[in-house]
Structure to design on (313 residues):
């Protein structure tokens, strides 16, 4: 949503910006056409979702509060832009209620954690089941396995295990360790100074292999007297920070309570609403969306396959 909001300068005949709204649904339809899934989950951060991680690391996501306009052509000031973001996000949820998808949001839980849980548990027992995580955030590459793939809408690329290894030189089973050291600018997680995409796989060759390791393995390499390095010492001297980064970015052990798990399972058991085409069209016409979604009838027909699966139960 935020990427489309910033990039697409679409406005309706009343001059109201609709770029985030239109771009979001374009992306959703394109992904469904490409994958032909039987179920779709749209996962949102809950209210106060970042608080748990901020309690561990106060700087977490602090860089996202930008005091500037991202789309000068459409807005006069930042307050105007912020109001439009909220309005379009609220509207997205209203539109989603007319489509055969499941919308998931839990107070005080981040979307990443919900996705981490879903990827590891739903349909795990179903032979040949596949899951696709749609996100430009490469944190999700730690979840890639034989069942789970990650699709980057910015790169237009589906990541299987080999794709992760080809691009990063890291097996997904050890991608969390890689991210712990290299950090994540988007979440204001600095990582350890001196570690990057190129040198980290060379300094810790075990990350290239399938066998999953943990921080203790990193420490063992750093403590090896035959492998003296300023970078190794830097890790040993900042263990507390390293362990914080590891905990914050760990999506295989998501930051959710037992009650949150029960709520996620309830979402999973619920049958999505059927396609309410006329309700969607009423919203679309009221918002004067025009060509925001190209070939709207074709786009809506994309959801018929999902609709047929819901009817089968």
């Amino acid at each position: 949503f935020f990427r489309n909001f910033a990039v697409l300068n679409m406005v309706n005949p009343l001059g109201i910006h609709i770029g985030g709204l239109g771009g979001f649904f374009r992306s959703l339809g394109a992904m469904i056409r490409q994958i032909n899934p039987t179920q779709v989950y749209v996962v949102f951060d809950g209210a106060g979702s970042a608080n748990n991680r901020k309690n561990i690391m106060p700087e977490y996501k602090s860089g996202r509060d930008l005091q500037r306009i991202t789309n000068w052509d459409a807005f006069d000031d930042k307050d105007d832009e912020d109001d439009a973001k909220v309005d379009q996000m609220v509207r997205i949820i209203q539109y989603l209620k007319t489509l055969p998808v499941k919308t998931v949001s839990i107070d005080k839980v981040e979307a990443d954690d919900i996705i981490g849980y879903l990827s590891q548990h739903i349909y795990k027992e179903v032979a040949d089941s596949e899951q696709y995580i749609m996100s430009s955030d490469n944190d999700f590459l730690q979840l890639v396995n034989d069942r789970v793939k990650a699709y980057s809408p910015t790169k237009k690329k589906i990541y299987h295990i080999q794709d992760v290894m080809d691009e990063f030189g890291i097996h997904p089973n050890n991608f969390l360790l890689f991210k712990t050291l290299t950090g994540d600018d988007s979440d204001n997680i600095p990582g350890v100074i001196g570690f990057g995409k190129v040198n980290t796989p060379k300094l810790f060759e075990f990350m290239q292999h399938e066998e999953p390791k943990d921080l203790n393995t990193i420490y063992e390499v750093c403590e090896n007297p035959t492998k003296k390095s300023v970078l190794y010492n830097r890790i040993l001297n900042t263990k507390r920070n390293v362990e914080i980064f590891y905990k914050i970015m760990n999506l295989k052990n998501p930051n959710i309570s037992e009650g949150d798990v029960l709520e996620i399972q309830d979402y999973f058991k619920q049958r999505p609403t059927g396609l309410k085409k006329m309700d969607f069209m009423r919203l679309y016409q009221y918002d004067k969306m025009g060509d925001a979604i190209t070939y709207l009838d074709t786009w809506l027909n994309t959801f018929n396959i999902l609709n047929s699966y819901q009817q089968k139960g």
The chain has 15 helices and five strands. The first strand starts at residue 41 and ends at 43. Residues 78-96 form the longest helix (19 residues). The CA atoms of residues 194 and 230 lie 9 Å apart.
